[in-house]
């Protein structure tokens, strides 16, 4: 926590898929949110030193560090960044695993933009998954 | 030779020298005479050498003669063998001296003296020019052959001053060529005065033709003709006889042995003198002992020698001969011979004793004439026989043999003249021939067991003869009984030997009375036996040839399809087509002996069959020698024009002197159809495998579709928000739409590829780059790999050879192997899941390796993984690898698996390069034959 006050919320996007990153960033900008994109979990974790986002949108299936792994490190490190995991995998076990690892919310791809944005609003506010 | 006084002196000398000699030499020494071959000139020299060594001063010597016969067997290999042979033969023997007769023998020794290290050599009749650059080493001496060409020409010019042209004849063997060098040098001085021509690289036939057509002012100088241009080996003086007989001008010769065989004469190398001179040198060396140096070489002798008969023939004046000339064959007229007798008669006719003397002389002469006549008559019979046999067809040999036996039998006055052919196989002797009228011909077949002694001798090629049964030795007791039983009283059996094979026996038997067999008669009959043996051997060879022809004819007849044998210009010389009954109109119907086979194909080409051009090219290239074998496939319309049949055409060269080719045309329609069926089945199976693969990839495929879909949806939703803003950023909206299009296409691509894998298709041969194939597959499977936390790496050798194959099927193989690898690493800890795909050049093809870090193969697995329905996975069908292997096999490659040394296993498969792929099983070959059904080359 750097204690920098921001006018707009900063949402970090971690996904290895470029079109997903680009489209999400557009979505957030169109919704008065700031977005920072990272192509890998490691990139994101390295950047935490300089800047901690208000929220994290995290893809699950990535080469290298998987989304679940990133979530575990965040949880273990006590870094209070609420996470929304987005995944093409819609298996219930996966959802359970992510939630137990500490993720705030789990969303399947492709998703509705309003649902995502409302989820972001809620988790940043401190609420968990309804 | 006046040997006696010389011998006396020698004995005295020997008495003085014996102690010294005995001290120097212990036991008989070995002397080796090396001679090129049994030619008359060399034989004379040998005789003189032996004579020289028979002197008592020399002591006991064993003389061995070895014939080199190198002129018959040119080449280094023979020389080496001969040296080894000589070395082994004379190893450990005390060889004290070697005579090298002729330049060839000397050269042989100078090249390599290992068979006789350190043994002194005396050469006879060589010249420095024969030795080339080699100098005589120490321990080698001899008698130089004098060069007499110029002196001979001088003598010819003395006899024929008007001479304007000189024709020189010499043969092609190395020794002759060397001698020719000296001859040319000597004759150089006549270049201005005479036109000099050299017939030194011609066949005997050519030479005979040339000399017959020479103009009157020419003369011939005959050096030698031992080997002619065609490689025929000749006896020089026999060749001379023919040349001199055919020549229209006088022939002068350089060797003594030529005088009397057609040469007018000349300054001749006195071969006999050279022999004696060499012998003397040799004797000096032997008596002097090992320590003394050898005496230096000397110049050999020569004489002016002429043939009176040839001088008379060409009307040459003997008075013009150079002084010192010797003239032979003067001959005497009848009066010159009998003048003394006539004179005597005239003086004292009354002396009865004279009359008796005359009568006796007369009778002696008559007897000599009679025996001469007999001999001549017999020789006439023989040459008549031989001439008749030469002209015979082999079928007539039997009949002619019997006739000849009858003639000889009558002539000799025997009762039976027979040919006996023993067969060790059957154990019997077949006897057939002639019997005098009224005489029992004897049995036609006799068991060998009844003639054991005779049969043994026959086998060894020995003569059997007896004038009386009592003459037979005791060990021939059984034979004697048999001879008696067949009525033989005197018998002569001469073996028929050809090429070291005993073919049988020529036998003469008397039944009515006894008779002796004088040696002269036996010798003459041996000549006859030689002729018959020759003929019989030829007959055997002919029979064998006919058999082999019949055999090959039968083979050709039995071959399937049409076989045509053509000569170099394409004319049919043999064919079996009449058997096939017109299979393939337009082709077989045109075949006839003598017709041009190439015209058949030209006709087809003209009628619109474009593939015929390739066939024509193929046949022509074999006829030209540019190809060793051509295999083509050709489609021809069937007789009823329905479906087009496939033929395989093979063209092989015909390896005879005149060239040609053998063309076979086999109907492979069945084979093609079967192959097509197999292809279809294999493709069906492969498709099933792909279905299964797709099933395995469902999650990955779903993932791959969801990604672009997410992008599309999110982008569109973002776009909607942008539009709702007060001042919409149209540029950004444009970007959004672009990205949507791209993602849409990506998703479509996944569906497209999926469809490609699942649809029914025909296999297609295209050029495939293995590296690109692997990159595509890796891209395709990346998602799955990510899902399973596997790191896929590649190590691809750049520029591997391009393969020919079906892209979809090859992709399937690779996908299968990669998925198998991923499966194998299921139980491996997440960080250690590595899959490595490699390509390497292998010969002119590619070897691909898929290496995992999984559990590896069990021993059972190693053997059985390629078996259908064998699966290590509970949900597996077990068909992936068998299908993969069948695909690789159809491509002419191999698929196998090995365990890695560290962990996991590697699957390798090889594929051959474009030019060599026997991927004929895959699809229709792209020959011009598929006009109308031509397949477009598929895109990768």
N- and C-termini, Cα separation of chain B: 102 Å
Q: What quaternary form is this?
A: heterodimer
- Fraction in helix of chain A: 40-55%
Largest sheet of chain A: 5 strands, parallel
Let me know the average pLDDT of chain B.
Answer: 80
Bin the strand percentage of chain A: 15-25%
Task: Report strand order across the widest sheet of chain A.
Answer: 2-1-3-4-5
Computed CA radius of gyration of chain B, to the nearest angstrom:
47 Å
Helix-strand pattern of chain A: EHEHEHEHEH
The main pleated sheet of chain B reads as: 6 strands, parallel
**Sequence stretches where pLDDT stays below 50 over 5 or more residues of chain B:** 17-25, 579-585, 915-940
Please count the helical segments of chain B.
Answer: 26
Secondary structure class of chain B reads alpha/beta
Using the alpha-carbon principal axes, give the shape of chain B.
elongated
**Helical fraction of chain B:** 40-55%
Which spans of chain A of ≥5 residues are poorly predicted at pLDDT below 50? Answer: none
């Amino acid at each position: 926590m750097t204690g920098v006050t921001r006018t707009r919320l900063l949402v970090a996007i971690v996904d290895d898929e470029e079109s997903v990153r680009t489209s999400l960033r557009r979505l957030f900008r169109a919704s008065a949110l700031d977005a920072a994109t990272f192509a890998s979990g490691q990139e994101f974790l390295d950047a935490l030193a300089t800047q901690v986002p208000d929220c994290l949108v995290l893809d699950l299936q990535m080469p290298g560090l998987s989304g679940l792994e990133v979530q575990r490190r965040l949880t273990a490190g006590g870094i209070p960044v609420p996470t929304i995991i987005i995944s093409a995998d819609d298996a219930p076990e996966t959802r359970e695993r992510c939630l137990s690892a500490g993720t705030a919310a789990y969303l399947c791809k492709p998703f509705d933009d309003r649902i995502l944005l409302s989820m972001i609003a809620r988790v940043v506010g401190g609420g968990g998954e309804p | 030779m006046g040997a006696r006084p010389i011998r006396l002196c020698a004995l005295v000398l020997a008495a003085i020298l014996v102690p010294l000699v005995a001290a120097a030499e212990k036991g008989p020494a070995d002397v080796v005479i090396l001679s090129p071959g049994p030619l008359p000139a060399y034989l004379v020299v040998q005789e003189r050498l032996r004579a020289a060594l028979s002197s008592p001063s020399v002591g006991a010597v064993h003389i061995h003669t070895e014939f080199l016969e190198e002129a018959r067997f040119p080449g280094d290999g023979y020389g080496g063998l001969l040296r080894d042979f000589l070395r082994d033969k004379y190893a450990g023997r005390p060889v004290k001296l070697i005579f090298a007769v002729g330049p060839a023998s000397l050269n042989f020794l100078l090249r390599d003296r290992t068979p006789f290290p350190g043994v002194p050599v005396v050469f006879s009749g060589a010249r420095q020019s024969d030795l080339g650059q080699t100098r005589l080493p120490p321990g080698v001496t001899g008698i130089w052959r004098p060069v007499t060409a110029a002196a001979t020409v001088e003598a010819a010019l003395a006899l024929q001053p008007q001479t304007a042209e000189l024709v020189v004849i010499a043969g092609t063997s190395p020794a002759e060529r060397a001698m020719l060098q000296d001859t040319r040098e000597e004759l150089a001085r006549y270049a201005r005065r005479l036109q000099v021509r050299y017939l030194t690289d011609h066949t005997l036939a050519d030479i005979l033709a040339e000399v017959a057509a020479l103009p009157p002012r020419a003369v011939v100088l005959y050096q030698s003709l031992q080997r002619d241009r065609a490689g025929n080996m000749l006896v020089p003086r026999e060749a001379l006889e023919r040349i001199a007989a055919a020549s229209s001008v006088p022939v002068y010769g350089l060797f003594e042995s030529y005088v009397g065989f057609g040469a007018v004469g000349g300054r001749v190398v006195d071969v006999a003198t050279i022999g004696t001179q060499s012998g003397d040198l040799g004797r000096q060396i032997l008596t002097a002992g090992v320590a003394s140096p050898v005496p230096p070489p000397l110049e050999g002798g020569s004489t002016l020698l002429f043939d009176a008969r040839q001088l008379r023939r060409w009307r040459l004046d003997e008075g013009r001969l150079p002084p010192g000339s010797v003239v032979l064959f003067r001959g005497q007229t009848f009066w010159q011979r009998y003048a003394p007798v006539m004179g005597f008669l005239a003086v004292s006719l009354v002396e009865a004793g004279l009359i008796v003397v005359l009568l006796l002389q007369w009778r002696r002469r008559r007897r000599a004439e009679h025996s001469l006549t007999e001999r001549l008559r017999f020789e006439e019979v023989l040459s008549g026989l031989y001439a008749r046999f030469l002209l015979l067809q082999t079928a007539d040999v039997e009949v002619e043999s019997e006739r000849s036996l009858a003639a000889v039998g009558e002539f000799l006055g025997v009762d039976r003249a027979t040919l006996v052919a023993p067969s060790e196989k059957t154990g019997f002797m077949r006897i057939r021939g002639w019997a005098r009228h009224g005489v029992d011909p004897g049995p036609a077949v006799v068991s060998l067991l009844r003639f054991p002694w005779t049969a043994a001798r026959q086998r060894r090629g020995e003569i059997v003869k007896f004038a009386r049964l009592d003459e037979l030795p005791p060990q021939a007791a059984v034979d004697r009984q048999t001879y008696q039983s067949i009525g033989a009283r005197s018998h002569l059996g001469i073996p028929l030997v050809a090429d070291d094979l005993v073919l049988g026996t020529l036998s003469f038997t008397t039944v009515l009375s006894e008779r002796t067999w004088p040696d002269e008669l036996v010798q003459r009959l041996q000549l006859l036996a030689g002729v018959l043996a020759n003929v019989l051997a030829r007959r055997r060879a002919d029979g064998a040839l006919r058999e082999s022809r019949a055999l090959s004819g039968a083979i050709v007849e039995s071959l399937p399809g049409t076989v045509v044998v053509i000569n170099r210009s394409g004319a049919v010389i043999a064919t079996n087509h009449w058997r096939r009954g017109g299979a393939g109109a337009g082709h077989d119907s045109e075949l006839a002996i003598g017709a041009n086979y190439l015209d058949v194909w030209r006709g087809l080409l003209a009628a619109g069959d474009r593939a015929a051009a390739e066939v024509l090219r193929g046949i022509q290239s074999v006829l030209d020698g540019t190809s060793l074998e051509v295999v083509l496939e050709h489609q021809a319309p069937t007789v009823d024009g329905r479906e087009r049949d496939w033929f395989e055409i093979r063209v092989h060269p015909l390896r005879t002197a005149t060239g040609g080719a053998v063309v076979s045309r086999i109907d492979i329609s069945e084979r093609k159809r079967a192959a097509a069926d197999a292809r279809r089945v294999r493709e069906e199976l492969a498709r099933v495998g792909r279905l299964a693969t797709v099933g395995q990839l469902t999650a990955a495929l779903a993932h791959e579709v969801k990604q672009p879909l997410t992008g599309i949806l999110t982008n569109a939703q973002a776009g909607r928000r942008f539009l709702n803003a007060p001042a919409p950023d149209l540029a950004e909206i444009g970007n959004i739409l672009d990205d949507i299009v791209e993602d849409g296409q990506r998703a479509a691509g996944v569906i497209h590829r999926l469809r490609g894998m699942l649809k029914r298709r025909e296999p297609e041969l295209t050029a495939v780059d293995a590296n690109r194939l692997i990159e595509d597959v890796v891209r395709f499977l990346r998602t799955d790999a990510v899902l399973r936390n596997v790191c896929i790496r590649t190590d691809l050798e750049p520029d591997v050879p391009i393969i020919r194959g079906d892209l979809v099927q090859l992709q399937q193989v690779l996908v299968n192997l990669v998925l198998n690898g991923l499966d194998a690493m299921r139980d491996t800890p997440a960080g250690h899941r590595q899959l490595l795909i490699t390509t390497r050049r292998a010969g002119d093809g590619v070897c691909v390796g898929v290496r995992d870090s999984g559990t590896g193969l069990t021993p059972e697995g190693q053997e059985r993984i390629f078996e259908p329905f064998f699966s290590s996975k509970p949900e597996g069908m077990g068909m992936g690898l068998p299908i993969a292997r069948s695909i690789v096999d159809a491509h002419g490659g191999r698929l196998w698996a090995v365990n890695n040394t560290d962990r996991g296993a590697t699957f390798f498969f090889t594929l051959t390069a474009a030019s060599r792929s026997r991927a004929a099983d895959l699809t229709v070959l792209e020959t011009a034959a598929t006009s109308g059904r031509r397949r477009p080359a598929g895109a990768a």
